[in-house]
Amino acid sequence: MENQYTIFNELKEISPAVANLNKHNLYSLPVGYFEGLSSEILASIFIQSLSNGSKDTIYTTPNGYFTHLADNILQKIKLETILIPNVEDELENVAPLLNSISKQSPYLVPHGYFADLKMQAPTVHKTKIVVFGKWRKLVSYAAAAVFAGILAIGAIKYIEASYSLNIENEFAKTSESDIKNYLDNQPSVGYAFVSSATDDQEGSGFFEETSEDELQQFLKEQPEKVEIANKDI
């Protein structure tokens, strides 16, 4: 701040007019000056070009232009045909062999050729038509039948397996009291010995097929049944 006052005092001594000038910035522009500057410059250039240009209409034709237009066009066409060299003369200079070739089209037929043309139509042999539709239907039906049969067999096996009872497992689940009550309600075991000869033969055949170890194991597992049978005897 002291430096600023020192400069101001020096200016008063040197040039009081400069020291008394307003201290605002002289090099300032109005707000938004550069926003429309380019369009304003182009507009001023265009206005200057219009003011300096000719006032006459650009798209004009001379007097009598269309009156002699057709004759002028024909004259230009004739002039071009005269200036264009003859093709035969040019070929004679460039390739004489081409001039010796006939100008007639090679793809020609005599007059009335197709009118008198007689051709025998080829005989058409009927081929045997093989129909695959029925076989395909039969194959599809057979496949469906096999698939249905497999499903039916599987369902039957599943139902039989679900309803079949494992005797050993069911017998193991039964309590001893239930077995004893069942045997008490059955007829005497001695009555079983009064059976026909065929039953004895079947029973003897059953025990013949059973080993002694299996019989001993059965007697150990069912001691109550053995005691009841001995009492009845």
Key features?
mainly alpha; 61% helix; 12 helices; 233 residues
Describe this structure in words.
The chain has 233 residues and is mostly helical. The chain has a domain at 174-232. Helices cover 61% and strands 0% of the residues. The chain is built from twelve helices and no strands. The radius of gyration is 66 Å and the shape is flat. The N and C termini lie far apart (144 Å).
- What is the molecular shape? flat
Described by strand count, sense and barrel closure, the largest sheet is: none
Total of DSSP H or I helical runs spanning 4+ residues: 12
Give helix and strand order, one letter per element, not per position: HHHHHHHHHHHH
> What integer is the average pLDDT?
72
Which stretches are low in confidence, meaning pLDDT under 50 for 5 or more residues running?
A: 189-202
**Distance between the terminal alpha carbons, to the nearest Å?**
144 Å
Radius of gyration: 66 Å
The helix fraction, in percent, is 55-70%
The count of DSSP E runs of length 2 or more, i.e. the number of strands, is 0
Percent strand: under 5%
Query: What is the SS-derived class?
Result: mainly alpha
Explain briefly what this protein structure is:
The protein is mostly helical. It has a domain at 174-232. It has helices at 2-14, 16-19, 37-52, 69-83, 87-94, 96-100, 133-163, 167-173, 176-185, 197-209, 212-221, 223-232.
